[in-house]
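Field notebook, page 80. I keep forgetting to write these up properly, so this time I am using the form the group agreed on. The chain and the ligand, zinc ion, are recorded exactly as supplied. Prediction of the bound pose follows.
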Amino acid sequence: MTGRVCPVPGCGATARAGHAMCRNCWSMVPRESQRLVYGTWRAVRADRTMAAVVNYREALAQAVNNVLARPGDYDQRGAT
Ligand SMILES: [Zn+2]
């Protein structure tokens, strides 16, 4: 599962092992959205049902959209 490419379009960085995105993009995902991704991922690991996978994919797609909706915000964030 290592060496996955970050799902954010135009990023192209490698996502960290066990993480959905690269560190840079993940830092731009709002905390609320991060929690949703984590929560749904845990459900996938626990349940292994198609419904859980769909929920996870939706949460991840939403997180990607949140990153894309933040143009020019790169410099201010990520410092924490
Ligand atoms: Zn990325």
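OBSERVATIONS:
- The CA atoms of residues 50 and 62 lie 18 Å apart.
- The radius of gyration is 13 Å.
FOLLOW-UP: compare against the apo run.
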